[in-house]
Amino acid sequence: MCPAAEDVQAEIERIQTVLDDLAAEIGATESWTHPKARELDTISFHHWLREQSDNEEACRNIGIFIAGGMLTKPAHAFSALQAVLMAASAGPFSNLVDDTFILDRRVVGGMQSVSRTMARELGDDVVKLNEPVRFITWNDEGATVKSDGLEVTAKDVILAVPPNLYSRISYEPPMPRLQHQMHQHTSLGLVIKVHAVYETPFWREEGLSGTGFGAEELCQEVYDNTNHNDERGTLVSFVTDEKADEMFRLSTEDRKARILESISHYLGEKALEPVVYYESDFASEEWTRGAYAASYDLGGLHRYGPYQHDPVGPMRFACSDIAAEGYQHVDGAVRMGARVAEQILER
């Protein structure tokens, strides 16, 4: 992709500085307490960007990192406060666009190997797979948790799933009114994740990193995702929000052709001929139903944020979707797990 024009780049950097300053001022932990919280939470990120600049290209380029790249929703569908939280959680927005900060570490064998290793160490008597929780009966003393094949009684229950899945469980007594409302004001975005595997990482041979961003592209992001010690090359790319809607209206083959064409705009015609092509549709997965994490609708963050960590009887909530630092990332999930474990141990 051609680099941005000098005036566009300068404007991008200026807006980025404004976001960094706001993120530092408001912070990630309790953004809803800031005096500007309501003001920023009742205007969309799309309109906030246009208030900062009349340079449309600069606004779109800033928008892809939070709207397409992180929340996977159109910038008009979430608030400026939600965008500031996203920036502050990475400490600051600049880190979201720094490929040596947020994108420079990978787990050999993939992230699932971490979960599998932990499960193996805990043992089959502790970790029960393929047992989705259907029903929780609870009071202030504890709870009984039921799946199709198990029934467990415990003093504490941790719901470590995204907020959009809380309602997949039936509760007796029902969750309080506040939780019902809160959970209805959060949703996940939409993304198609694409892996294209090639006989070699040809872009490296041509002196290219394999990383690219394009506000006008169907695939607004592309990265070198080649596996450790693999002779083949793998590119990963993403199609998000309204662009994904458009792709799902096409046939499988037409969608593949359009996506590969977009990737080729970054890396050349060799990108059109992968030996393996695979799409992941997060929204169709039973236990995700979207990507990558839940965010509030306009006005929801300052209204419900103060209560999203509150326990309900013996039930506590721990997931990266409601993390402060590390929101939407593995780091946030680990922080939330540690936080809830400490609360239970203290009690």
TrEMBL record:
It comes from the Bacteria. The keyword Nucleus does not apply. Keywords: Oxidoreductase. Its cofactor is FAD. Residues 23-345 form the Amine oxidase domain. This is Amine oxidase domain-containing protein. The keyword NAD does not apply. Belongs to the flavin monoamine oxidase family.
